[in-house]
Amino acid sequence: MNFRPFSLAALGLLAACQSQPPLDPSLDRLTQAHLGLMRQQADELAQALTRLDNIGRAYCAGEQPLTSVQQQWRSAFTAWTAHQGQSGGPLDAAGLSYAFQLWPDKKDTTARQLTRQLEQPGPLKGASITLGAVEYLLYEDLSQAQRCTLLPRINERLVQNSEKLQLVWYNPSDYEQQLEQMAVQGGERVLLVQILGQLAHRYDRIEKKLDLPLNTVEHPRPLFAEAWRSEQSLHFVRTSLQNLEREYQQGGIRAWLQQQGKTGLITELDKAFADTLEHLPEGDSLAHWLQGDNYAALLRFKLSFDRLGSKLKLRLPDALGISLGFNATDGD
Questions:
Q1: Which numeric CATH code is attached to 23-170?
Q2: Domain ranges across the chain
Q3: DSSP 223
Q4: Does domain 172-328 have CATH number 3.40.50.620?
Q5: Tens of pLDDT along 34-70?
Q6: pLDDT one-digit tens code per residue, 182-217
């Protein structure tokens, strides 16, 4: 019988794993709720992009109208809004932070790259393989032949990247192992900092979506809005807020608060989310609300949104006895 010799490093790792105490059941539930939602959202993104790829190919074959592709693009982008603002997790680990979107696109790099691609076809790269590139093809005044020169290739790459993201979320030796080590070595505090930090990052991303185009009443910047070309910017602010609320409700934090008896704080947060969504103006276009007297409605919404941020980033961590600190929320 042949035996493969263990290296000292492998033996040390095995001993370390065997000596670790079992994970606290309550922390394990928090971890699994967080992972479960994140994996579900990764599945939803992959499914939505696969449908976009299929409908796009059907459009290019003359079997579907342009409106069907546009509607599925909107659904795919909605699924993507559930991932915006992630930091330090699988999206970064897989090198996919800019694989689905380039924003803010202040110089309209997407249009410049796609124009060159249509004039001089070559390898796809950068902004030309994002959901923004698909938006450009679907909403600019182009012929079907022009759109279909690039649409199937871009959609195929988006599907491939979404499948890479799925693999990283589901691989237990990646993020799941990191969370377990946090819980075992650092306990409740370290795990909560990680999960609340994700909520804070997502909030900050939504805030950026609003603040960049809002700018000032004298000088709003509608072209700094997300998805301005399709006039869907406000719609995606709405879906981002809904996904943020979903993460709070289903990602383990709300259940953790119930377990800790923080019913008053739960009521505060539930009301803050409801008030924010209630005061978000109607419709899909942010540019419409940046004009004239409409601007005041956005300012009223921002008051509710700021209060929600205070609850999520200050009140919630303080009630749990933790501090997110500067590094927890700096960046997108």
A1: 1.20.1420.20
A2: 23-170, 172-328
A3: G
A4: no
A5: 999 999 999 999 999 999 999 999 999 999 999 999 9
A6: 988 998 999 999 999 999 999 999 999 999 999 999
